[in-house]
Amino acid sequence: MFNNKVVIITGSTQGIGLKTAELLAQRGALLIINSRRPEKVQAALAYLKQYTQHVAGLAGDVSDIAFCEELNEFAVQQFGRIDILINNAGIAAGGIMMESRAEAFKKVIDINLLGCVYPTLACLPELCKRQGAVLFIGSVAGIAGLPSYSAYAASKRALSSLAESLRSELLDAGVFVGIHYPGFTENESDKTIMNARGEFEILKKREGVKAMSREQTALNIIKQLEHKKFRMFSSVSAWAVYTSYRLFPNLFVWLLGRYRKKIMSMQ
Ligand SMILES: NC(=O)c1ccc[n+]([C@@H]2O[C@H](COP(=O)([O-])OP(=O)(O)OC[C@H]3O[C@@H](n4cnc5c(N)ncnc54)[C@H](OP(=O)(O)O)[C@@H]3O)[C@@H](O)[C@H]2O)c1
User: Fold this and answer.
1) What is the crossing angle of helices 115-130 and 150-169, to 10°?
2) CA distance 153 to 157
């Protein structure tokens, strides 16, 4: 299914994005990888070349539409087409609304929401030519707005609506659109989280929460693309949050309030 398919994965120089690139390389995909830091792109290219020679990378910020247009052109120059776009780039962000700086909030929306909108806008004409696929990487935090994650939750929740609109719009064009909700996934040791003031801190290990491996999450992303499933949850807990929120929204919001201190301490 992925053999000779051209796949762009944004934010793919570490974490879930890099592992997804590795597993797709093993399945014969032609890969375009990306993140903002050129040295990370070079390191990821060197790593992926163990698995494939058909990989190229472009450093740049997906919250910049001009860069996303460049990324689209780069992919077409490299491989002549684009079959799949995985909008994976994102930043973790926490902190209560009362302490949020406007520019910090905006940065989260710019990267996590517009950083998925812009690559999609740039690549859609190519994806339509190939009847390709667009996958958004959401988050459980975007199913129901968790306390202490207002900007992150808002950015990820917006992706669900975006994916729903786009799915209907592209049915006639034959382009698959999906959204994946990873559960807690093992973080890179240097993964950062932005606080309400816009400063980046190393993300603390989440005590008492069993994280999925990056491989498990990446395998689920691949499975979703294979089965063209619109919505997929990487973990049972992510599915349970979605289902209970849909069935009992008021009870769910009440529980969020009741356990707010515990949730906020998990940051
Ligand atoms: N890990 C989890 O438990 C979890 C749970 C739910 C959802 N998710 C979502 O899954 C995705 C991947 O998470 P992860 O844990 O693998 O994150 P990660 O380890 O922090 O990796 C994020 C990647 O995105 C890149 N990136 C960040 N901002 C970018 C931008 N503006 N333009 C281009 N690249 C950018 C980063 O590299 P540079 O810094 O060099 O740009 C890095 O390669 C994210 O969307 C995240 O919200 C993760």
Assistant:
1) 20
2) 6
Atom in ligand 1 nearest the alpha carbon of residue 90: 45
Pairing of strands 192-194, 200-202: antiparallel
Q: Check residue 267 and give its pLDDT.
A: 64
Write out the H or E segment, with its range, that includes residue 31: strand 30-35
SS (H, E, C) 40-87: HHHHHHHHHCCCCCCEEEEECCCCCHHHHHHHHHHHHHHHCCCCEEEE
137 forms beta bridges with 180
State which residues form the domain around 164.
6-265
Q: Per-residue DSSP letters for 210-257?
A: PPBPHHHHHHHHHHHHHHT-SEEESSHHHHHHHHHHHH-HHHHHHHHH
Assess if residue 1 is contained within a domain.
no
What is the chain's length? 267
pLDDT digits (tens, 9 = 90+) for 33-87: 999 999 999 999 999 999 999 999 999 999 999 999 999 999 999 999 999 999 9
Q: What is the tally of structural domains in the chain?
A: 1
- Domain assignment of residue 108, yes or no: yes
Q: Let me know: does 20 contact 43? Beta carbons within 8 Å.
A: no
| Residue burial 130-168, b: 16+ Cβ < 10 Å; e: rest | eebbbbbbbbbbbbbebbbbbbbbbbbbbbbebbeebbe
- Which amino acid residue places its CA nearest to atom 33 of ligand 1? 35
If you take atom 1 of ligand 1, which residue's CA is the nearest one? 185
Is 114 touching ligand 1 by the criterion CB < 6 Å? no
Q: Which parts of the chain sit beneath pLDDT 50?
A: none
Please give the single-letter amino acid code of residue 151: A
In a domain? residue 34: yes
To test the ligand 1 pocket, which listed residue (13, 117, 179, 241) has its Cβ within 8 A of the most ligand atoms? 13
Q: What is the DSSP letter of 97?
A: G
